[in-house]
User: Which sequence fits this backbone?
């Protein structure tokens, strides 16, 4: 395998690299007026020096907060046939017309998920296994293969043209068998930390397992890549896969409790503790503070691959920002004969990744929490970095910008005709040490790439003061935004003129929406919770809004989803991939789960029952919403009282022709859409405690 970074195509903006200077831990330029442009490191020595300065500042902020009382709190960041051959007509089934795929944010940009289909197969991650089922005819479900995947498989991408699958897993180093080659590379022991206990340099490993699925009955292992860091998301355009991950290397000397080990260090003065922290941080090597990547070949040989080659020029720092975590983008082309990946790294705070068909954006808070310890009057700000993803398997930096406030999630970003629209909330996270912190307010900014900068060219601000964004969506020249405090204002946004975005209309209704799904220029669906004029009632609610008059949106209809005799919830409230609207049948599929305590027949007590269903709702733009029926998987869970609490929900659905497939942890059922009669099913083992770790 080859690691490659094409310098000719990915030179960041040329800005003189000026390292941060600190005086007693305080940043010398507290106003930090930089616009977040990425500065490429010209040497590994520069990268090491910069990271150590960040670590020292973080350690001193933690120690000062510890001295004041109450440990620091991190700013928040927001789960075929018997022969296995496909039909001769494979390729004629069209996604969106014949079958539903993943509910992606953007057309042409596939998002990784734990259930996928190519129209002829259903792929499902279950426990630590990848199950493949054939669908020779719509309504069929024929087991073809089961393959174990190392660690905790999270999501996958399937490419029918390349006949490849990429499975993204999370590995907890503490679960590694000692004979695993990663164990010796990650485990550390220090007599100065917690009485010599073992610890690991990273809390998370992201693994890419690349499979050849040309024979679905016998998937073949192609490559295994291990990246130190937390898996965030993955996107695929055509056959180009891009993984977004975030690494936060554990440095004991940075933690304030590092000095509470009973050795007497707690009796030292604050300045003495700071001096010890600086000494220990300066003694670190670069390899101690940047993520590493490893590869295991089909031959089972294991090797470390350096991200720090070419003098660390794949690493970049946002100008005027403060972070020591690293956001990584790994890009690979599944159609390439050579297995190689392109890598880009940004010193960043917890990032949000968003991709349109041509661009990929990394949005991240401009300053880590510790910076606000000394600059509490400064605004929350978000850096946004733009990358060109049109070249197969390559990612090229284009430029950066900065906006006030923080994002809610990926739907706070949307690109259209080379303009990026961004919805943010200022003062979203209170600073616990600040009395009378300012109230949040919201804004929508439009950015354009000009001379290597993402410049704000238009803005609508001062929206819904005292509230924060709970959902947003940008579609074409329109935008929608929901904020919440006691009631739910739905704002419609006119983005026709990117230089003058404006709020076109507003509607206040009880409760709030957490996901918005436009189905036409006249109708908008949402999922969220209901309520009254004073508070939310936390009951799952589907709403349809009439936006035909964009200046005066109206609530057209509401359907409340509740579980009998109990509480209920839906994953679709926070995970858009669980929301499946199938326009050809005018049906909306929503997972719904709940539980209740039921009196036993002998009167001696109560027992717990679990309810897990796929609710189907008719969506008629003229008549509104109507409960169509449900597909119940409850018996699959209640039949095993010892395991009912493990992954007990219907979580995904697929429409294929005249059938709907409901997928839960314990099985897949296939029902006719007309009447919902079951035609077939396949049991799944479900998550088991022994599935927590598997190694080849």
Assistant:
């Amino acid at each position: 395998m080859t690691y490659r970074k094409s310098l000719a195509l990915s030179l960041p903006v040329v800005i003189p690299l000026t390292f941060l200077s600190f005086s007693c831990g305080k940043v010398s330029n507290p106003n930090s007026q930089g616009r977040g442009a990425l500065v490429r490191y010209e040497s590994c020595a520069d990268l090491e020096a910069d990271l150590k300065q960040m670590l020292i500042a973080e350690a001193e902020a933690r120690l000062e907060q510890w001295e004041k009382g109450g440990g620091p709190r991190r700013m928040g960041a927001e789960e075929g046939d018997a022969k296995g051959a496909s039909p001769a007509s494979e390729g004629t089934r069209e996604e969106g017309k014949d079958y539903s795929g993943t509910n992606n944010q953007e057309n042409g940009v596939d998002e990784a998920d734990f259930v996928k289909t190519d129209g002829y197969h259903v792929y499902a991650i279950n426990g630590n296994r990848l199950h493949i089922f054939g669908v020779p005819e719509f309504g069929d479900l024929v087991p073809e293969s089961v393959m174990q995947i190392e660690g905790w498989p999270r999501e996958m991408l399937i490419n029918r043209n390349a006949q490849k699958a990429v499975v993204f897993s999370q590995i907890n180093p503490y679960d590694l068998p000692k004979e695993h080659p990663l164990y010796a590379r990650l485990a550390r022991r220090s007599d100065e930390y917690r009485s010599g206990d073992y610890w690991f340099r990273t809390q998370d490993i992201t693994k890419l397992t690349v499979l050849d699925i040309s024979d679905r009955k016998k998937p073949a292992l192609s490559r295994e890549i291990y990246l130190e860091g937390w898996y965030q998301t993955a996107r695929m355009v055509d056959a180009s896969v891009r993984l977004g991950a975030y690494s936060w290397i554990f440095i004991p000397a940075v933690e304030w409790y590092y000095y509470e080990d009973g050795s007497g260090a707690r009796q030292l003065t604050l300045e003495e503790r700071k001096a010890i922290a600086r000494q220990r941080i300066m003694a670190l090597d670069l390899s101690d503070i940047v993520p590493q990547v490893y590869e295991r070949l089909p031959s089972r040989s294991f090797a470390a691959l350096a991200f720090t080659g070419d003098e660390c020029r794949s690493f970049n720092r946002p100008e005027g920002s403060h972070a020591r975590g690293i956001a990584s983008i790994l890009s690979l082309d599944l159609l390439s004969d050579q297995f190689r990946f392109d890598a880009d790294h940004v010193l960043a705070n917890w990032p949000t990744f968003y991709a349109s068909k041509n661009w990929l954006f990394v949005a991240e808070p401009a300053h880590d929490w510790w910076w606000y310890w000394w600059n509490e009057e400064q605004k929350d700000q978000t850096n946004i970095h733009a990358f060109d993803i049109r070249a197969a398997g390559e990612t090229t930096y284009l430029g950066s910008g900065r906006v006030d406030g923080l994002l809610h999630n990926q739907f706070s970003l949307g690109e259209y005709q080379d303009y990026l629209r961004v919805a943010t909330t200022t003062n979203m996270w209170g600073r616990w040490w600040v009395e009378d912190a300012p109230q949040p307010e919201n804004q929508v900014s439009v950015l354009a790439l000009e001379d290597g900068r993402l410049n704000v060219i238009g803005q609508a601000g001062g929206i819904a003061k005292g509230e924060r964004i709970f959902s947003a969506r940008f579609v074409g020249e329109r935008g929608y935004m929901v904020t919440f405090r006691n009631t739910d204002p739905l704002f419609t946004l006119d983005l026709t003129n990117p230089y003058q975005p404006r709020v076109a209309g507003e509607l206040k209704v009880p409760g709030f929406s957490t996901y918005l799904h436009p189905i036409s220029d006249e109708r908008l669906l949402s999922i969220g919770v209901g309520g009254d004029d004073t508070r939310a009632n936390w009951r799952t609610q589907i709403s349809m809004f009439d936006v035909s008059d964009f200046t005066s949106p109206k609530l057209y209809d509401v359907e409340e989803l509740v579980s009998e005799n109990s509480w209920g919830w839906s994953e679709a409230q926070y995970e858009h991939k669980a929301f499946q609207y199938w326009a050809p049948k005018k049906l909306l599929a929503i997972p719904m789960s709940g539980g209740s305590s039921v009196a036993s027949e002998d009167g001696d007590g109560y027992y717990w029952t679990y309810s897990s269903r796929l609710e189907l709702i008719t969506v008629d733009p003229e008549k509104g919403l109507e409960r169509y029926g449900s597909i119940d998987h409850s018996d699959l869970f209640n039949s095993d009282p010892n395991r009912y609490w493990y992954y007990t929900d219907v979580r995904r659905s697929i429409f294929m022709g005249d059938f709907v497939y409901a997928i839960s942890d314990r099985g897949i059922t296939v029902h006719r859409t007309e009447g919902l009669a079951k035609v077939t099913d396949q049991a799944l083992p479900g998550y088991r405690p022994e599935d927590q770790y598997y190694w080849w």
Observations:
- The radius of gyration is 26 Å.
- The helical segments are 44-68, 181-186, 270-282, 309-312, 369-374, 634-638.
- The chain is about 10% helix and 45% strand.
